[in-house]
Specification:
The protein is an alpha/beta fold. Helices cover 55% and strands 16% of the residues. The radius of gyration is 18 Å and the shape is globular. It binds coenzyme A.
């Protein structure tokens, strides 16, 4: 059996590739489970400091949840679909969103449905010039179920998100950048190099500073400001208790 998610090492950076190109990298249950296991192994490996997440082939980052895979659960009962399909997908996007090392989406083609929700969950995203983004779940008769009704409005605003989720229409990469769904658009030939270069600009900083900064933003963004400031203060305390932070401050003073 070919690996559904491959892991390549580029120095301190992991490149994870969704690997079902003949199915436009649709997110089968097995692929989601394999991606979660890959993230577990990267989390436990101190030599890996950031993750670039991309799709195999030229056409797709991911065409979303595997429709043939989840359809039997949807037909069986709402409870079964919730347990096997929705909770699995939400756990995946939440894991990516809350990951302690930056996950950078390198969007190498279409990112539809759960593919788009995966991009939304990533800390950062770079799109190839031919990438496109859509929320076509409404055509299947249900709202986006992997966090897409919640993260997209937080990223791009309610009306712009509602235009995407209610129409199901695709947007191109420049529009995605203008909306704030991706950080930048690059020529497709430079996609992975650009993502790795962005990763390197982050991993030059200490692991504890990167992890605390990620946690402060990701946990705080959904809280009222007073609680969010407590999250920020708690993450500062974690960093301030680290020898890495003391060394970084000392290095600045000694420059
Ligand atoms: N789930 C399962 N299989 C999918 C898939 C998905 N989300 N998206 C694409 N595929 C499969 C197709 O069944 C096809 O497989 P086959 O050759 O064995 O029949 C293969 O990937 C290529 O897709 P195809 O539809 O032939 O390509 P296309 O260029 O004509 O259309 C899309 C591309 C993305 C417009 C179309 O595949 C599509 O609408 N996919 C579903 C997108 C979606 O609704 N995602 C949200 C799911 S909740």
């Amino acid at each position: 059996m070919p690996e559904l998610v491959t892991l390549d090492r580029e120095g301190p950076h992991a490149v994870l590739t969704l690997n079902r190109p003949d199915k436009l990298n649709a997110l089968s249950y097995a692929l989601i489970d394999e991606l979660m296991a890959r993230l577990d192994s990267i989390e436990a490996d101190d030599t890996l400091r950031a993750v670039v997440l991309t799709g195999a082939g030229q056409r797709a980052f991911s065409a979303g949840a595997d429709i043939a895979g989840f359809a039997p659960d949807l037909a069986a009962s709402p409870e079964q679909a919730l347990r096997r399909f929705v909770q699995r997908g939400q756990a995946m996007t939440r894991r990516i969103e809350a990951f302690g090392k930056p996950v950078i989406a390198a969007v190498n083609g279409l990112a539809f449905g759960g593919g788009c929700e995966t991009v939304e969950a990533c800390a950062l995203a770079i799109a190839a010039d031919h990438a496109s983004f859509a929320k076509p779940e409404i055509r299947l008769g249900f709202p986006p179920p992997f966090g897409g009704t919640q993260r997209l409005p937080r990223h791009v605003g309610r009306k712009r998100a509602l235009e995407m989720v209610l129409t199901g229409d695709a947007i191109d990469a420049p529009r995605a950048a203008a909306l704030g769904l991706v950080n930048q658009v690059v020529d497709r030939s430079r996609l992975i190099d650009s993502a790795l270069a962005l990763a390197a600009r982050i991993t030059r900083h200490t692991p504890v500073a990167v992890a605390c900064t990620l946690r402060a933003v990701t946990r705080g963004i959904n809280l009222p400001i007073d609680e969010a400031l407590q999250v920020e203060a708690a993450q500062f305390m974690v960093a301030a208790g680290s020898a890495q932070t003391h060394a970084a401050t000392a290095a600045w003073l000694a420059r």
